[in-house]
Amino acid sequence: MKDIISPHDKLFKEIESVKENTKDLIESTFSEELLKHLNLETLENDNNSYIDSSLKEYYSDLVFHAFTTIH
Fold first, then answer.
1. Is the pTM of this model over 0.90?
2. Where are the alpha helices (DSSP H) in 3-68?
């Protein structure tokens, strides 16, 4: 996380990098229709950033993977 410029982004990433915190966020914001297709027990942090280096000053990402029942 040393490349994060914004203190807000750094705080968010620190909090949401904890699996249980991310699970709580997803459960409280995603629709029931979407949640029924997600297996949040399989939630895993990707640990990679997909932001172009020229945009890192403006954007930050936090990527998780989970198994779904959607085909």
1. no
2. 7-16, 19-29, 32-35
